Amino acid sequence: MRRVRRTLVALGLCLTAAVPARLAAQAAAEAALPARLGAPARAAIVAIMDSARAAGLPTSGLAAKAAEGVLKGADDSRIVDAVRALARALGSARDALGPTADPSVLDAGASALRAGVTPATLRSLGNAGATPAGAPALAGALVTLVDFVAKGVPPALASQSIEQLLRLGAPESRFVTLRNQVEADIRDGQSPEAAVTTRVRTSVQQMGAPPGPGAAHPPPNPTL
Amino acid sequence: MREQPEDDKLTGALAQAASMLRAEPVPRTEWREALLEAVASHDIDQVRPLLWSVRPAVAIAACAACVIAGAALSYGVLLRGRAGAPPSGLAAESSVRPGGAALPVRFAVEAPGAVHVSIVGDFNGWNPGGLPLHRLPDGRTWEVEVGLTPGRYAYAFVVDGRLARDSSAAESGDDDFGVPNSVVLVGGS
Amino acid sequence: MLVRAVLAGDPAAFAVLVDRHAPACLRFASRMLGSREDAEDATQEAFVRAHRALERYDEQVRFRTWVMSILANRCRTTLLHRHRRTSRVVVDGAAVERAASPSTDDDDELRDAIEHALARLETAQREAFVLKHVERLSYEEMSAITGAGISALKMRVQRACERLQVLLREDGYA
Question: Which of the following CATH numbers is that of domain C105-174: 3.40.50.1450, 3.30.565.10, 1.10.10.10, 1.20.200.10?
Fold first, then answer.
């Protein structure tokens, strides 16, 4: 019990040291909300950001979303809706990916949800990504997924491919390479679906695994 | 100079453009001297034959890779170690991106008549004042270099107060405001 | 032979090699990287590495081919670690407005157009196009420089030309 308490105190001390910096950063983010926002919209967005922060969600993207809306001349209610939608997506991403998910993973997860990936799929990807390759690989995988869906790859195929690589322990660099290869293939005239299928199959083979869930495995030698 | 042995000759504007590209630049004197000096200083180091040599750039890169890998690993361990603790504000600092070193990304735009050009995007909170571009001596090209960790970023240019997209970049799908952004994927060719 | 002279310790011999091959190397690197400054850095690095590896140089290979293969690697590494776009601004979805300053002549515009178009090719295609149609090398030499097979290189050159023609046409050049 004493050890637990000591650990908690130590953690608390660390957090206390960081809290003033954190508060200052968040205050700065709110102060950075564009001046052109009307007072009601500003108040609504600050409230959304406060809730998000209390829930342990990253909030800098929310302020950025408001800034984007102002730059694009959107009216205040549309901006508030957009910020709220993003906050919800971040919350759903955290529900799917777990309370210890890294902020960059949450951002990427929220993008994936907004691109049409289902929460169940995201949860499955989060589990697949619990490998030594860790948060960078999962963030990289989710970014790749969003990219593929944006390029027109059917979401189910994109998710399955990404999940397969995650389960094999692919590091972030593997996903970076994959994105570049698929982009180059599409520019060379291949369909996005074909490009992803081919490149993922090659990647899987390079990682030393059998080619895919549908591949036939030779039966074990019966004489042994 | 060899003749083109194959029959894949160019035609039209492309042929003309290719011949323009063939102009050989004249090496600057300072550049040439710096190169010869770099080579000569290596000669001095070469007094004793080495069985293997580590070039400084490779050594620095290897150290940097180790530091980054070490930082990423330790950050991952730190996260796992906090599994029992309640979510804290520290974890919510989303400017930290583990596992990625920032890569220099150069954005350049031709805006000959412009007075002020900046770039806005996911990487700078869509702040139009944050990342101004600098006009090059040709008077038409504006550029800025931004350090970005591998990922996918939406962005746009702000030219004299008006939002402008990058016509050579991919477009994002629906944004939230009916105005698609340009998209850049960092971490590749 | 110059390389032997360098290895024997003749200080002037390497300068002759640089003078003979640097212009073509700078040209190749400029076309690959789109910037004179980056081209100078990459070319300098390539020559320094070539000098350090001179003992391993195989006289069966042309010196230029050998140094360009080092340079091609440097360029690919540089491109991998940076992202480059040069674009024209599209404001409010309206059509592109090109600079129409009176002092710009047609040659300058075509040069701009091809440089922009080259920058928009993916690296392997750009490299193949530049080696084939700017450096005017044979496919055998290109294969030695890039490590790619000849039929793959032919495919890249063909696709590069097709893409460049499309891009030039978009700019009003046929």
Answer: 1.10.10.10
Residues of chain C with Cβ-Cβ distance to B16 below 8 Å are 110
- In this prediction, the residues of chain A whose per-residue pLDDT falls under 70 are 1-30, 32, 209-224
Question: pLDDT at position B40, please?
Answer: 83
C122 Cβ under 8 Å from any chain A Cβ: yes
State the best of A49, A84, A104, A146 to mutate against chain B, taking most chain B CBs within 10 Å: A104
ipTM of the complex: 0.81
**Contact check, Cβ <8 Å, B189/C161:** no
pLDDT at C137: 95
Co-location of A77 and A151 in the same domain: no
DSSP string, B14-73: HHHHHHHHTPPPPPPHHHHHHHHHHHHHHHHHTTS--SS---HHHHHHHHHHHHHHHHHH
For residue B18, the chain C residues in CB contact (below 8 A) are 114, 133-134
CATH fold group of domain B103-186: Immunoglobulin-like (2.60.40)
Q: Do A187 and C122 count as a contact with CB atoms less than 8 A apart?
A: yes
Range of the domain at A83: 37-99
> What's the pLDDT tens digit per position in C8-62?
878 788 999 999 999 999 999 999 988 888 899 999 999 999 998 888 888 888 9
* The pair of three-digit structure tokens given for residue B172, joined into one six-digit string: 């994002």
